[in-house]
Amino acid sequence: SVSLLVAGRAIQGVGAAFLLASGLALVNGSFSDDERGRAVGTYMGLTAVSTAVGPALGGLLVDVLSWRAIFVAPLVFPLAAAAVTLRRVPETPVTGDRHPDTKGAGLAFLTIASFSFALIRGPADWLRPEVIIAIVLAALGSVLFLRAERRSRDPMMPLHLFRNRTFSGGNAVTLIAYMVSAGAFLFVVVQLQSTLGYEPAAAGAALIPLYIIMLIGSPLAGRIADKIGARTPIVAGLCILAGGVYWLSHIQAGAQFLSEILPGMVVFAVGLAVFGAPLTIATLGAAGDDEQGVASGVNNTVGQVGGLFMIAILPAAAGLSGHTLEGPAFAAGYETAMLICALLSLGAAGIAAFTIKAEGHADQGASVRV
Questions:
Q1: Phi and psi of 206, rounded to 5°?
Q2: Is 359 left (phi over 0), alpha (psi -120 to 50) or beta?
Q3: Inter-CA distances, 210 with 43, 263, 281, Å
Q4: In angstroms, rounded to a whole number, what is the distance separating the alpha carbons of residues 222 and 27?
Q5: Binning pLDDT at 50, 70 and 90, where does residue 93 land?
Q6: 127 in helix, strand or coil?
Q7: First vs last Cα of the chain: how many Å apart?
Q8: Chain segment 3-24, per-residue pLDDT in tens
Q9: What is the pTM of this model?
Q10: What percent of the chain stands above pLDDT 70?
């Protein structure tokens, strides 16, 4: 049933929240400044590979076996990863005087859950009573959350971090970058299937070159950020990403993969690889060593909310409200959606140019509490 599926996804989300925040914080905190860029880049590149395997494997399982088969892999891989982690990954230093911010966590859950519900149900009719209630709860929850974090002795999201321009700007860029990547991925994959007639496995396989480029390019971009600072590769990468999205906006019926689709995907992937690791390095580098975990958690949450926000609103912004994501109506709105993504990417580049410091790790430790 749908209820069981949603409950299962909620449990998956709890595990993913632990992994995303602690995994990146572990990598970022385990290397010195002159090695951190390459380490974070390698981490992000390997994440891209696993992301590439997922759609291809999922499409293959759906085509060959059944949609039920795609729920087998999420049982096997996490157990294997847990075994490797227990044997090979050292523990990080623990701060013993920290206390769980249960009030802040509850208010954050209320805010994000209400916001998510409004985004999912709102595009069909923003004036529906349940949507209005969700928006009111999200607004009220956000106000109460900020008040609770100001008063908390040990807040889950220390607000003083946002006084640092690099941290605030990095998270703003992360929000927009995730919006662009989520929106572009969604529309490209649907365009390949609905307009060009690709099977699910073929649509997933078409994205593999993109992730290979990210696997190779992310560590290189991280190394460049270590040498020249993060701002230049972030701005350049976002501009390249905008160019790739614009190129992909011209995919129409009958487009040839090698000559018309693959080049745009290559440019798109290069953009992602160039700015991804430097953006993470700059954003987390603006927090102190004792706040890498919370900084990573904030940054990942911002990215996830950005992806959710874009997937919910982009179809409406492209004039697809009330239409299914297929057929002539989708083909007509596809180019508009991709142009919106390209403009947002350029906007993120502008924000990065004015907020990210040119030095690689000049802000490290700037926000340590005293």
A1: -65, -20
A2: beta
A3: 16, 10, 22
A4: 13
A5: low
A6: coil
A7: 51
A8: 898 898 888 888 888 887 787 7
A9: 0.80
A10: 91
